[in-house]
Design brief:
This protein has 198 residues and is mainly alpha-helical. It contains 10 helices and no strands. Helix 6 crosses helix 8 and helix 7 (108-134) crosses helix 8.
Length: 198
């Protein structure tokens, strides 16, 4: 029997994750039964669970990949950029994000496992806001934890709105408003003087 390379294993894992994302988005966590996952992936249960211990591990892998990508974007460009990138996300990504939020509310075990990932995103957001505050870009009249919560609430609301079919024609202006709300008056005044949109 030929040996499967690490690249082949990684490619098969990515293929399973992509198909599982569609299944979770269409059917929710509970509705994405093993039969549904088999139909969506075109693989047997044995092949799916060769790569992932169980359905919970499969869902967590999707959510973890999304959280890692978000934390990376936040560290480099900020949480508002994550929001700007949402217009490029498909229904599968949005569906998984909604399912993560639902399970955080209803499943204490999932919430405990998820806390570390949420902490990474919160930490990256806080660190970026601290750097920007020192540079005079972010307002200093509101405590950082409140600014972080404000941005997280805006992100959650945007995910919910987009998943519900909210039109995106006003999205750039809404996100400019969100970004302006956390910026210092001096920074906003400089942008207006220079004619920058944000």
């Amino acid at each position: 029997m030929p040996k499967v390379s690490d690249e082949q294993l990684a490619a098969k894992r990515a293929e399973i994750l992509e198909a599982a994302r569609r299944a979770f988005a269409r059917h929710g966590y509970e509705g994405a039964t093993v039969k549904v996952l088999e139909a969506e992936t075109g693989l047997s249960r044995g092949a799916i669970f060769h790569h992932f211990r169980d359905k919970e591990a499969l869902f967590l892998a999707l959510a973890e990949d999304d959280a890692a990508a978000m934390a990376e974007t936040v560290a480099a460009q900020g949480l508002v950029q994550v929001m700007r990138d949402l217009s490029d996300k498909d229904a599968g990504w949005l569906g998984v994000q909604l399912e993560v939020r639902r399970r955080l509310r209803t499943d204490p075990d999932f919430a405990a496992k998820w806390a570390e990932h949420q902490s990474a995103i919160t930490g990256a957001t806080t660190a970026r806001l601290q750097r920007q505050r020192k540079a005079g870009i972010v307002r200093d009249d509101v405590p950082l934890p409140i600014l972080v919560d404000f941005l997280r609430l805006a992100l959650d609301g945007l995910v919910s709105g987009l998943a519900a079919g909210m039109p995106t024609d006003h999205l750039p202006g809404v996100l400019d408003l969100v970004e302006g709300a956390v910026r210092s008056r001096t920074s906003v005044a400089e942008d207006l003087h220079q004619g920058a949109p944000r």
